């Protein structure tokens, strides 16, 4: 493979590395695992599916299989096996750090040569995938014939150490963001319990505190607006912080697009019953955001705290999500507006809002850190592997 400019001492970016096909370095597919499995072998084993791999991380401590049933095509793979999803949608990649039962359609790669480390190959495949055309899936034949550049052991270790450290910092950023979201929900529940105990809350319906509900529009997969970012799917909110820095206030916004502005609440309406986290966002940016039909915009009345209302929707997301999943579109607005909500005094609302905004500023710093590290990670990967 072609490389960048070499370094004088360590030559980490050399284009003189020898290459071998992956089929000569590893055993691929079912031959790299145990295929004759029975129910007893499932006990205490993790189960890895295509969805588990979509996070592209080392597969650690996955939930234990809850049914003692062997699915046709399941394979048990051992520690150090690289997993590649052959699914056209997920295309996930993982590295097992424990023995696990793996779903059919996931290719196991077990290194059989001392010339390459599993961790190095894992990062190489992650980098290579970004050049694989979208919706083109991996195949075992393609993987077997794939030419793998083979730097010396110490260079492989250097690459793995550096990329692992970046990923570890990113994981800490993501965990901090998640903990902040959990803290805000806990703050809401604490406020609610205190007010309820003191008898200083009102039980009303959402209808009395919402000025407008608007559903998003359908955007083509690759469609973009020059004047506003589009909220589609489960977004990387860090990208909105970058847009904030580059947005020109004189930009003309597309009139036909549904737009959310400062103080609006955006709620994800396509989540399934297994959604890991509620997606409820308060618009805090200086520019408008267009949003797809996977999202609904809720505009609170002027005297109602957006942060408090968003915290309510997060805390009650299981009910909200059920309503959103089971209702036809024309009934969604009415069903949402009939949700019961407990409203604290205006003083407590203001106190809650002030605390949440300060906490969210910390969250934004973590989002910006994610963006910076993702850029660094991408640059280093290209230098190492291109």
Automatic annotation (TrEMBL):
Type I restriction modification DNA specificity domain residues are 55-174
Record carries keyword Transport: no
Keyword line: DNA-binding, Endonuclease, Hydrolase, Nuclease, Restriction system
One GO molecular function term of this record is: DNA binding
Q: Does the keyword Nuclease apply?
A: yes
Give GO BP annotations, semicolon-separated.
DNA restriction-modification system
Family note: Belongs to the type-I restriction system S methylase family.
Name of this protein: Restriction endonuclease subunit S
Recorded source organism is Bacillus thuringiensis
Lineage, broadest ranks: Bacteria, Bacillati, Bacillota, Bacilli, Bacillales
């Amino acid at each position: 493979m072609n490389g960048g400019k070499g370094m004088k001492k360590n030559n980490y970016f050399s284009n003189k590395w020898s290459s071998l096909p992956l089929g000569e370095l590893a055993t691929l597919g079912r031959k790299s695992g145990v295929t004759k499995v029975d129910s007893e072998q499932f006990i205490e084993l993790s189960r890895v599916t295509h969805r588990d791999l979509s996070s592209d991380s080392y597969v650690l401590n996955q939930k234990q299989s809850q049914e003692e049933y062997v699915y046709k095509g399941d394979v048990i793979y051992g520690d150090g096996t690289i997993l590649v999803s052959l699914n056209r949608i997920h295309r996930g990649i993982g590295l097992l750090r424990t023995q696990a039962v793996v779903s059919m359609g996931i290719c196991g790669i077990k290194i059989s040569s001392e010339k390459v480390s599993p961790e190095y190959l894992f990062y190489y495949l992650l980098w290579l995938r970004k050049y694989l055309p979208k919706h083109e899936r991996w195949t075992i034949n393609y993987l077997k014939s794939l030419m793998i550049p083979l730097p010396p052991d110490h260079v492989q270790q250097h690459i793995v150490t550096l990329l692992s450290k970046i990923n570890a910092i990113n994981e800490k950023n993501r965990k901090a963001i998640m903990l902040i979201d959990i803290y805000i929900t806990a703050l809401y529940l604490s406020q609610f319990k205190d007010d309820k105990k003191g008898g200083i809350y009102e039980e009303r319906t959402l209808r009395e505190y919402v000025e407008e509900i608007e559903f998003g529009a359908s955007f083509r997969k690759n469609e973009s607006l020059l004047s506003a970012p589009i909220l589609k799917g489960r977004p990387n909110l860090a990208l909105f912080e970058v847009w904030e820095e580059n947005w020109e206030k004189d930009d003309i916004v597309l009139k036909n697009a549904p737009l959310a502005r400062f103080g609006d609440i955006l709620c994800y309406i396509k989540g399934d019953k297994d959604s890991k986290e509620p997606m409820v966002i308060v618009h805090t940016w200086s520019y408008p955001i267009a949003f797809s039909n996977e999202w609904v915009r809720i505009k609170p009345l002027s005297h109602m705290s957006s942060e408090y209302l968003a915290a309510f929707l997060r805390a009650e997301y299981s009910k909200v999500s059920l309503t959103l999943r089971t209702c036809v579109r024309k009934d969604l607005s009415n069903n949402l507006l009939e949700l019961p909500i407990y409203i604290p005094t205006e003083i407590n609302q203001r106190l809650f809002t002030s605390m949440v905004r300060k906490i969210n500023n910390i969250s934004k710093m973590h989002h910006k850190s994610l963006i910076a590290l993702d850029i660094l990670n991408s640059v280093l990967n290209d230098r190492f592997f291109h």
